[in-house]
Design goal:
By secondary structure, this protein is an alpha/beta fold. Among the domains are: about 160 residues, ATPase, nucleotide binding domain (Nucleotidyltransferase, domain 5, 2-Layer Sandwich); about 200 residues, Carbamoyltransferase, C-terminal domain (DHBP synthase). The strands form five sheets. The chain has a seven-stranded mixed β-sheet, with helices on both faces. A five-stranded mixed β-sheet has the order 3-2-1-4-5, sandwiched between helices. α15 links the parallel β11 and β12. α9 packs across α13. The structure holds fe (ii) ion. Fe (ii) ion binds next to α8.
Length: about 600
């Protein structure tokens, strides 16, 4: 019996981005939210998740003093393993390397002074972080200072172990194996886990920086004119529009190899090592320059036309990623037989890769947690520490509505603001009618979602049958390229009739795995099907997990014969999901949406 607060701290040498908090009571997650939902800055870099902590504790009816442990998804001790590589990267910095290559007597003194000053600054920073992390206590003190009243210990969980725990425990598998792939943890960027005799994750294999598939894909994404660590989904969606060609695939093969029988079945270190920047981050400028030289073509600037060259590079990168991860899963299965595979880390956001893994005979089953990137570290760390307190952390997460609900009564708010509104007897039927009439509906219901996807709590909905809905919803959300399809929310009981390979009873509640759409359905639901490869990224919705949302899709199904709706996230351009009622109302009136539903209270732009 324990109360564990998991956090991704987001400051000072710890994992810097995606701060979040998660409360686990007796092994069960009861509340979780990202700090960005409060700060309103996407991924809230460098911010301690103070507001997220306050929310999860309130939701669980606890105070800081009631906690048995604070779990951090990052290990202070393991951080020291970075030192050799970081020192090496620092000394290999192009400025210093250029100076070292200067002919004797030809030293450019002002430049030398600048380069040495920059190197000294970086070295000072490195020493500062080393001092901070040399003992776990100092790191723990830094966390405790931000949690006044804390009496419980701060426990550090290695980054990849926290990712693995976030996948293995909720999966509901008897013998789960976790594959973790991301940009960088403390020093590792790939790892494989099974379960030890005591039920905890046990590491089987590990791959360290510079062999990082996350860095590899981020570098390609930057070259293609999208933002690394954010625009990877665009690279993935662009890939099916390209094809194998010697110029792209051949060139890439110089720096990225798949080596099926090697201990590490892939190697991208030739690309990543020369591009390591401050604190072992990816120096995107250097990465783009290196790729421009490799492809013998300048990088695409944001907004430039996408050419066949760009499409083929996206294709080559996605193809490489799929082959590399397939080889990794195959080599794990060669030793153990078909796997009950779970997959976490930022690379697991690649839903097309997950489609490939799902179809592998070496993976009997596949579970990818909704918060599979670093936001989920708070969840994984808390589950791991709860298990060490003797709690059973193996609770399924049939939905992720673990965040805050409406901050105020929507009806009262609308009345105060003199905004006409009504509460129909059958809200689901009314939403379905509006959708079938071609209206765009902003749907705000219950507690908000934890993780990167809108899953029927803060969603924008539209009719998937109408191709023109893609343009119309794009006008509302303002930030998507027309060639990127939307995903659907689909009645779980009908998933196998719409999607190839989906079994009756199969669960896919988080929109992280792509599926192939059956031919007879693809043309009926063009707004949610990728035109180049007939895939879709669905959320299977069950009546048990999300009754109100299930009722809406059921009503739409009754009306139209189509058991799904288009679902995208309810947020303004470049903002996190809306959190408060006021944010929802403001976004509604500043957008081209037609209907707003706030916990069953309707606001219409046109009179009914
Ligand atoms: Fe990670």
């Amino acid at each position: 019996m324990s109360a564990v607060l998991g956090i991704n701290p987001g400051f000072g040498g710890f994992n810097y981005h995606d701060p979040s908090a998660c409360l686990v009571i007796d092994g069960k997650p009861v509340a979780a939210v990202e700090e960005e939902r409060f700060t309103r800055v996407k991924s809230a870099p460098g911010v301690f998740p103070a507001q997220a902590v306050e929310y999860v504790l309130n939701a669980g009816g606890l105070t800081v003093a009631d906690l048995d442990a604070v779990a951090v998804g990052y290990s202070s001790d393991a951080w020291l393993e970075r030192l050799p590589l970081e020192t090496r990267a620092l000394l290999a910095h192009p400025d210093l390397a250029a100076l070292a290559a200067t002919a004797p007597g030809a030293l450019d003194v002002p430049r030398a002074r600048e380069a040495l000053a920059a190197a000294t600054r970086r070295l000072g920073d490195l020493l500062h972080r080393t001092a901070l992390f040399e003992t776990g206590e100092r790191a723990a003190e830094r966390i405790a200072e931000r949690l006044p009243g804390l009496r419980a210990p701060v426990r550090f969980v290695r980054h990849h172990r926290a990712h693995a725990a976030s996948a293995m425990h909720p999966a509901g598998f008897a013998d789960p194996v976790a594959l973790v792939l991301d940009g960088l943890g403390e020093i590792e960027c790939g790892s494989l886990w099974d379960t030890a005799a005591d039920g905890a994750p046990r590491q089987l294999r590990r791959t360290d920086l510079p062999n990082s598939l996350g860095y590899f894909y981020a570098a390609i994404t930057e070259y293609l004119g999208f933002k690394g660590w954010e625009g990877e989904g665009k690279t993935m969606a662009l890939a099916p529009y390209g094809h194998a060609d010697a110029a792209a695939s051949g060139a890439l093969a110089e720096l990225a190899h798949v080596v099926p029988d090697a201990p590490d079945p892939y190697d991208v270190s030739g690309l990543v090592l020369p591009c390591l920047g401050e604190q072992l981050s990816l120096d995107t400028g250097r990465a783009v320059a290196l790729l421009a030289e490799l492809f013998q073509a300048p990088p695409r600037r944001p907004g430039d036309t996408l050419t066949e060259h760009h499409r083929n590079i996206a294709w080559a990168a996605q193809d490489f990623l799929e082959r590399a991860v397939t080889a990794t899963v195959r080599s794990a299965a060669a030793e153990r037989g078909p796997l009950e595979l779970t997959f976490a880390g930022g690379v697991a956001l690649n839903c097309k890769l997950n489609l490939v893994l799902r179809q592998l005979p070496e993976a009997r089953r596949l579970y990818v947690p909704g918060p599979c990137s670093d936001t989920g570290l708070s969840l994984g760390a808390a589950l791991d520490v709860a298990a060490s307190h003797g709690d059973d952390p193996r609770h399924p997460l049939p939905h992720l509505a673990l965040g805050p609900g409406a901050d105020t009564d929507p009806e009262k708010y609308l009345t105060t603001m003199t905004i006409p509104h009504h509460r129909p007897a059958d809200p689901a039927a009314e939403v379905a009618r509006h959708l079938a009439d071609g209206k765009v509906v902003m749907w705000y219901q219950g507690r908000c979602e934890f993780g990167p996807r809108a899953l029927g709590s803060r969603s924008i909905l539209a009719d998937p049958r109408r191709e023109d809905m893609v343009a119309k919803v794009n006008e509302v959300v303002k930030h998507r390229e027309l060639w990127r399809p939307f995903g659907p929310s689909l009645l779980a009981e009908h998933a196998h009739t719409v999607l190839k390979g989906a079994e009756p009873g199969e669960q896919a509640p988080y929109m992280v795995v792509a599926y192939q759409v059956r031919e007879e359905w693809a043309e009926r639901i063009p707004a949610v099907v990728h035109t180049a490869d007939a895939t879709t990224r669905p959320q299977f919705v069950t009546a048990q997990a999300l009754p109100d949302y299930h009722a809406v899709i059921s009503a739409f199904h009754q009306l139209t014969g189509v058991p799904l709706v288009l679902n995208t996230s309810f947020n303004d351009k470049d903002e996190p999901l809306v959190r408060t009622v006021a944010q929802a109302v403001r976004h509604f009136y500043s957008s081209a949406a037609d209907v707003l539903v706030l916990d069953g209270t309707f606001v219409l732009k046109e009179a009914p």
